[in-house]
Amino acid sequence: PGSKAPEEVADVVVEGLRDERFLILPHPEVAEFFRRKADDYDRWLRGMRRWQAQIDELRG
């Protein structure tokens, strides 16, 4: 997920409060990250390590 402007995050939070949601996330993809983490923690860790390696490589 890319960065969101503060105003966009505020809109998501207000909507979540209006809907009385327990977990308010800035990106729908983050909910999938939570599900995958709960389903298979070791697999999730491997994926996060790969993702971090890609970020580190891009940063040089």
Task: Describe the fold and architecture.
This protein is mostly helical. The chain has a domain at 26-60. Helix content is 73%, strand content 0%. It has three helices and no strands. Helix 2 packs across helix 3 (41-59). The longest helix has 19 residues, at 41-59. The chain starts with 5 loop residues before the first helix and ends with a helix. The model has no long low-confidence stretch (mean pLDDT 92).
C-alpha end-to-end distance: 21 Å
Average per-residue pLDDT, rounded, comes to: 92
What is the H/E order?
Answer: HHH
- Major sheet size, sense and barrel closure: none
The percentage helix is over 70%
Compute the gyration radius: what is it?
A: 15 Å
Secondary structure tally: strands: 0
Tally of separate helices: 3
Coarse shape: flat
Strand content: under 5%
Q: By helix and strand content, what is the structural category?
A: mainly alpha
Low-confidence stretches: none
Notable characteristics:
mainly alpha, 73% helix, 3 helices, 60 residues, flat
SSE diagram, text form:
Elements: H1 6-18, H2 28-39, H3 41-59
Kindly summarize this structure in a few lines.
With 60 residues, the chain is mainly alpha-helical. The protein has helices at 6-18, 28-39, 41-59.
